[in-house]
Amino acid sequence: DTPSGSNTMQIGSTNTATINLGVSGDTINVPAGVTIANAGTATGFGVAGTEGFLAYNGANYDSSHNTSTLVQLSTELYDTDNRFTNTASNYKYTVANAGQYFFFGNVQASNNGGGTINQAFLNIYKNGSSIAQVGINYSGNYSDVTQLHITVTDNASASDYYQLYNYVVTNDSSNMRVGGGNRGNTYFGGFRLT
Fold it and tell me: Does the global pTM surpass 0.90?
């Protein structure tokens, strides 16, 4: 109960180093309508921003015409839980904990001295299947350079994995160049929301 004549209860004092509430297995209930106000440093609360990554391709490479191709993301800008694999044939992010995640990606495709772009698509794959796609069809008005950007939110289970795939059709069946060398051209990232 609140001490008589006061509307504040103090737990602990200046000579208290640690205050424990309950033991393992206990439940501490905070009823609806209660506000928790923090003026100090909070650790271990919430999940937003606790898992995330951003990877990009460190150099240009060629992408096959008319083929769904895994985007090469050889360089990591950050990877909070070391869950991104940047080895050939993988280039995937594996979820550590179940929750809702936000993923985003971008691919820059350009003329590599051959044909021009007729169609281009970008997909985010989950466990080997597409869950989101963006694309552009130039319908004969071919382009030398195109940028595709994609975002998606998804409910993930632990060990689900996500990858970025591109698909390019050129007017003469030649391969296209995927821009690299810095994180602004071709990249894939994501983070946990809840």
Answer: no
